[in-house]
Write a structure and sequence with these properties.
Low-confidence stretches: 1-10
CATH superfamily of the largest domain: Bordetella uptake gene, domain 1
Number of helices: 11
Distance between the termini: 60 Å
Strand order of the largest sheet: 7-6-8-5-9
Oligomer: single chain
Largest sheet: 5 strands, mixed
CATH architecture of the largest domain: 3-Layer(aba) Sandwich
Shape: globular
CATH topology of the largest domain: D-Maltodextrin-Binding Protein, domain 2
Number of domains: 2
Strand content: 15-25%
Radius of gyration: 20 Å
Structural class: alpha/beta
């Protein structure tokens, strides 16, 4: 009893800055959402959150590095959820296993925008499908890497529409946009926050959004499902820590995010960018992770997809 009484009390988490790793270059949706999460954690804990961009392998480089970090709560990563669950399915020698990570929260989610280059003959999704069927393999679609939301969204579209289009992977959304504007690729499923200004400025054409219903701020834009029945693509952005991270650290970060994304300023920011503020419970993000793994695992198996 005396020995127990002499033990020092455990310090409250966090005692030092948290490093939040973003798996893509600056400027894309993960970077913007990651910096918002960093701000939320910093304000909640009175400790600066250091945001570190570490692009590569469609997000897998960063997730793999964080999976091997000390599981103390001070190193976390914000990948695209689709890419997180599909990378180990697509890659035989993947840099991480799903079970090597612990989900803290699903920060936000939102549809993508099916955007095309200017000058493309097809002006609607129906015309795009007809064009692709008339000229198999002639159209290209760009993604931010193998297994990312942009890639799997394109593969789901290809599969459900029954068309042959060619995948062109890049290291990040910013590179995709450069070549899409330049007309070096034909189309991509990009984030609404990336698409908004480019479409408004006439640099890209928005054919459709990918949710079940028209996206907020995109009410005049059709949904893909009007032409390809049943199509739906929602990107989701989980905050993850290495497996073995203490329950208290996970719980405190989860609570901070849940409260933070619901604050008027953060909620308004996410909504304006085309996202829905979520800040899910730990149980909710775990259930979503399992459901997404099942959905995309089925597509990967049926389509025979693999990295490279």
């Amino acid at each position: 009893m005396a020995a127990a009484l002499c033990r020092p009390a455990l310090a409250a988490f966090p005692e030092k800055p948290i490093t939040l790793v973003v798996p893509f270059p600056p400027g894309g949706p993960n970077d913007i959402i990651g910096r918002l999460v960093g701000q939320i954690l910093g304000e909640a804990f009175g400790q600066q959150a250091i945001v570190e961009n570490r692009p590569g392998a469609g997000g897998a480089t960063a997730v793999g590095a964080v999976s091997r970090a000390d599981p103390d709560g001070y190193t976390v990563v914000l990948p695209s959820g689709v890419g997180f669950v599909t990378h180990p399915m697509l890659t035989p020698n993947a840099s991480y296993k799903i079970e090597a990570m612990r989900a803290i929260s699903n920060v936000t989610s939102g549809p993508s925008v099916l955007a095309t280059r200017n000058g493309l003959e097809a002006k609607t999704v129906k015309e795009l499908v007809e064009f692709a069927k008339a000229k198999p393999g002639a159209l290209t679609y760009a993604s931010s890497g193998v297994g990312t939301t942009l890639h799997l969204g394109g593969e789901l579209f290809r599969s459900m529409a029954g068309i042959d289009v060619v995948h062109v992977p890049y290291k990040g959304t910013s590179e995709v946009v450069v070549d899409l504007i330049a007309g070096r690729v034909d189309m991509s499923f990009i984030s609404p926050l990336v698409a908004r200004k480019l479409v408004d400025d006439g640099k890209l054409v928005a054919l459709a959004t990918t949710g079940k219903t028209p996206a907020k701020g995109w009410e005049q834009t059709p949904i893909v499902a009007e032409a390809v029945s049943g199509y739906e693509l929602d990107g989701w952005y989980p905050l993850l820590a290495p497996a073995g991270t203490p329950d208290d650290a996970v719980k405190r970060m989860n609570e901070a995010i849940a409260a933070g994304v619901r604050k008027p300023e953060a909620a308004k920011r996410l909504t304006e960018l085309g996202f829905t503020p979520i800040g899910s419970s730990i149980e909710e993000v775990q259930a979503l992770q399992a459901a997404e793994a099942e959905k995309w695992g089925k597509l990967i198996k049926e389509a025979g997809l693999k990295a490279g």
